[in-house]
Design goal:
Elements lengths: L14 H6 L6 E5 L16 H11 L3 E4 L18 H11 L4 E8 L5 H14 L4 E6 L6 H4 L7 H14 L31 E4 L6 H7 L3 E3 L4 H18 L6 E9 L8 E3 L2 E4 L1 H14 L3 E5 L7 H11 L7
Parallel strand pairs: 1-2, 1-10, 2-3, 3-4, 4-5, 5-6, 6-7, 7-9, 7-10
Antiparallel strand pairs: 8-9
């Protein structure tokens, strides 16, 4: 394995993007809710604000929310339950420096004018800390609940993506299946950097070259190191081919951090149960293959949440600091 993209700078967007993503280096974030809930799909949300504030105090780069409009039985996870934009507004008021991410807003289920307005509002209210992950959605049950079709979500995603980007312009005028803004009307506020940092999750029903060209970064899922290295290398090659600046790669990871630092890994859903020694080695391997940020999910973590956050801060964050 070799360091990927260590000499190519990422573009400057907003505070959250610039502080979280650095070429050739890994940063760590956490996924809300910051608690263990293994016996069912619904978390308690106990001490949820205090735990996000603790993550900020300890030096984690970002907190990530998910867009889960319905508690779908087959999905088995209600996420943080609160609407992500409403919750981001609360977190913007209760935190000062941590990046506020959502991974990811399901674009086909929302009108893009509402997404653009809410996202720009959060970005401004937080001082430029928004990271806007977007996706096409993977829960078919949600679409008929909103009188929408599942099979055309890729087309709707692409049209919504374009609409949101255009709304960052002054008095944008364009034709789009979601609507045709004309006549000098404008959407306010504008994002702090003049555009939103839109990170595309997975394939989102799009051509890989389109993703490489249009996203400000890519969010993918955990895999073994060899497979992930090939996938990230392929994506970076596509980014280079289409031109423009280098872009960050992000992945999630479920962990159950054990008291025994030397405990070997055991697989769990989209991650592993292990001691901190293995976690450090794994994260370092991700850094070497070009992953720029890992969002840690504690849903299956058995230890006390506050204790785990502090152990992670003491035993992993220093390895990936500037």
């Amino acid at each position: 394995m070799s360091m990927q993209n260590s000499d190519a700078g990422f573009q400057i967007i907003n505070q959250g993007y610039n502080s979280t993503f650095h070429p050739g280096r890994l940063s760590l974030g956490v996924v809300a809710p910051l608690e263990s809930y293994t016996n069912g799909p619904v978390p308690t949300m106990d001490h949820h604000i205090e735990r996000v504030q603790l993550a900020e105090e300890l030096g984690f780069s970002a907190v990530w929310l998910r867009d889960v409009p319905f508690n779908v039985p087959s999905f088995g996870d209600a996420g943080q339950m609160f609407d992500p934009f409403v919750y981001l507004g609360l977190l913007a008021a209760k935190t000062e420096t941590i990046a506020l991410g959502v991974a990811s807003i399901v674009l086909p289920l929302r009108h893009p004018a509402h997404v653009a307005k809410a996202a720009a509002s959060i970005d401004v209210l937080s001082g430029g800390r928004l990271l806007l992950g977007v996706a096409s959605g993977d829960r078919p049950e949600e679409y008929p609940a909103l009188n929408m079709t599942f099979d055309d979500r890729g087309d709707r995603f692409r049209a919504s993506f374009e609409y949101i980007n255009r709304m960052s312009d002054n008095a944008a005028s364009f034709e789009n299946v979601f609507g045709n803004p004309h006549g000098g009307m404008d959407m306010l506020p504008k994002p702090t950097a003049g555009k939103l940092p839109l990170l595309i999750t997975g394939g989102s029903q799009q051509d890989p070259d389109w993703i490489a060209q249009n996203g400000e970064g890519w969010i993918t899922y955990p895999r073994n190191i060899d497979a992930q290295e090939k996938i990230i290398s392929n994506w970076r090659a596509r980014v280079k081919k289409v031109g423009g600046p280098a872009k960050p790669a992000v992945q999630s990871l479920y962990i159950d951090l054990l008291d025994n630092a030397a405990a070997p890994p055991q697989p769990i859903h989209l991650g592993f149960r292990c001691g901190v020694n293995h976690l450090r080695v794994y994260l370092n391997s991700l850094q070497e293959i070009g992953i720029n940020h890992v969002a840690l999910n504690l849903r299956f973590n058995q230890a006390d949440t506050e204790t785990t956050l502090k152990r992670l801060a003491d035993d992993t964050l220093p390895n990936f600091a500037e």
